[in-house]
Design a protein that fits this description.
By secondary structure, the chain is α+β, with helices and mostly antiparallel strands. About 20% of the residues lie in helices and about 40% in strands. The strands form two sheets. Strands 1-2-3-9-5-7 form a six-stranded antiparallel beta sheet, with helices on one face. Strands 6-8-4-10-11 form a five-stranded antiparallel beta sheet. A hairpin with a 4-residue loop joins strand 2 and strand 3.
Length: about 170
């Protein structure tokens, strides 16, 4: 007969084995300080602070800083996007809501929109998959994905004599 003590011992032994596998294969915990990633110019009045690049899932996290009157051209995402407004406010020209500090934004793949901030904003975004910038006739002008973000970050660091922060990479 199996006792509850036997079950607990088996559970503890299993957890110990799992912990060993985790320690062998898992990446170390990550920590990105405010100073460890620069604000990289993107388009006029728009900057990106890259937080992480995950090539395994084609995802990236960043803080988008749009200065007063700045806009991020019309684009669509090919994967889901989540955003959390840190400061300021912004909206998509195509929708009637305005994101303000503390607001959470969830975007579905395939929707087209144009980000605009009248007074400036900072929002943390988690992007999954590529996004496509579109012209007035819905033709793709540029595709931006995790590899584009990596190149954006590394090129800026190299041009400005900054050390590339390897802790940004998963």
């Amino acid at each position: 007969m199996i006792t509850s003590d036997d079950i607990v011992k088996q559970y503890v032994a299993t957890e110990a084995r799992v912990d060993l596998k985790r320690d062998k294969y898992a990446l170390e915990e990550g920590y990105i300080s405010e100073q460890s990633s620069p604000w990289v110019p993107f388009v006029p009045n728009v900057f990106i602070k890259h937080l992480t690049f995950d090539v395994r899932s084609s995802s990236a996290a960043n803080v988008l800083w749009v200065q007063e009157g700045g806009t991020l051209g019309r684009h669509r995402h090919r994967g889901p996007v989540s955003g959390y407004v840190i400061e300021g406010s912004w909206r998509y020209l195509e929708y009637d809501w305005v994101g303000r500090p503390g607001d959470f934004i969830r975007e579905s793949p395939g929707r087209s929109h144009t980000l605009y901030s009248e007074q400036g904003m900072k929002t943390m975004f988690w992007l999954n998959g590529p996004l496509e910038f579109l012209d007035e006739e819905d033709r793709v002008m540029e595709t931006v994905d995790v590899f584009w973000f990596i190149d954006h970050y590394e090129s800026y660091c190299e041009q400005n004599g900054l050390e590339i922060n390897k802790s940004l990479y998963l």
